[in-house]
Amino acid sequence: MKIDFDVVLKNIEGKVFKGVDDGAEKDLTLKDACIVVLTSDIPIEEPRPDGAEKFKRYELAVKLKTGGVIDIPSEEVAKVKRLIGLMCQVQLVGACYNALEGNN
After folding, report:
1. Are strands 2-4 and 18-21 parallel, antiparallel or unpaired?
2. Which of 5, 34, 78, 98 is deepest in the core (most CB within 10 A)?
3. What sign for the dihedral angle of Cα 80, 9, 58, 41?
């Protein structure tokens, strides 16, 4: 699936989600959200990921770091969506899922 990871994420009122990069506030992109969930430990995640799974997540995060339109397999999209669903609040989940599905 070709996905634009530079999409800026917005809440249901159309306001841009904000993140922090090196102490400065910035617009939150799909790339930012995906990298955070891929590189975070999620305490409620079952089963707990082993080292091999964590390394796969790291490799995907490195791939997404470049931003822009990236072609990733649907299995990796499903993995990212599952992690976003576990870690993020409802409006951010909706914005991420819409961006991942091309419904911006």
Report:
1. unpaired
2. 34
3. negative
Q: Spell out the domain ranges in the chain.
A: 2-100
DSSP 8-state secondary structure symbol assigned to residue 40: S
Rounded-to-integer distance, Cα 8 and Cα 31, Å: 9
Question: Could you give phi then psi for residue 93, rounded to 5 degrees?
Answer: -60, -50
32-69 pLDDT per residue, tens: 999 999 999 988 888 899 999 999 999 999 999 999 99
Going from the C-alpha of 41 to that of each of 38, 53, 54, 55, the distances in angstroms are 8, 12, 9, 13
Q: What is the value of pTM for the model shown?
A: 0.92
Q: Among 73, 39, 74, which Cα is nearest to 58's?
A: 39
